[in-house]
């Protein structure tokens, strides 16, 4: 299988920031298509995606899509263009390693298949979980990791393992030829050049939201004042 993913975008000079926004545009376009919208203006699509229209037009110009003056963009064709650029017109085989609560939730989600991602393998180290059936797949023991990756032609590995095990599992996944990893473990993984890792840390996202909530509520009276209040109350 040819690995396009964002590689084609890099080779053609599409900025990483643009690549990161393409899935947001695609999600907005799918929503519009479900509503029966045939064409959409840059302003309407930008509003749906939460960006300004000038940035959206510049991003889409990297794909060679400029829309039609007075008409806008054809929704279905733009869905195809973005899907092709992201590599979603192919069938990507995915393995989830770690079937705790988060891993089970991911394995049970049915929306991946419609986006070009096929759940092909589930692995865990817990004998109590191995053998379970989740969404039509049997959980294999992690001792079979290398064999499963080869047999299933895994393109992307999703790590939902404890932080203490993440690097070792990552090393095995990479050694087996997988070069795209989605990491949910709260740890920074070290990988060789040519391996792409996307990190999802829910605790960090919550902390960022807490920061904004604090600012909306008026914010603290400065670090020094907060420290003094804490000392006085101790």
Automatic annotation (TrEMBL):
Q: Which residues bind DNA?
A: 24-63
Annotated keywords: Cytoplasm, DNA-binding, NAD, Repressor, Transcription, Transcription regulation
Report if keyword DNA-binding is assigned: yes
Mind telling me which SUPFAM superfamilies this protein's record contains?
NAD(P)-binding Rossmann-fold domains (SSF51735), Winged helix' DNA-binding domain (SSF46785)
Q: Where in the cell is it found?
A: Cytoplasm
Principal subcellular localization:
cytoplasm
Q: Its domain of life?
A: Bacteria
InterPro entries assigned: CoA-bd, NAD(P)-bd_dom_sf, Rex_actinobacterial-type, Rex_DNA-bd_C_dom, Tscrpt_rep_Rex, WH-like_DNA-bd_sf, WH_DNA-bd_sf
Residues involved in NAD(+) binding = 98-103
- Domain CoA-binding residue range list: 87-188
Role noted for this protein: Modulates transcription in response to changes in cellular NADH/NAD(+) redox state.
Family membership:
Belongs to the transcriptional regulatory Rex family.
Enumerate the PANTHER family for this protein: REDOX-SENSING TRANSCRIPTIONAL REPRESSOR REX, REDOX-SENSING TRANSCRIPTIONAL REPRESSOR REX 1
User: Could you describe the subunit structure of this protein?
Assistant: Homodimer.
Task: Please identify the protein, giving its name as recorded.
Answer: Redox-sensing transcriptional repressor Rex
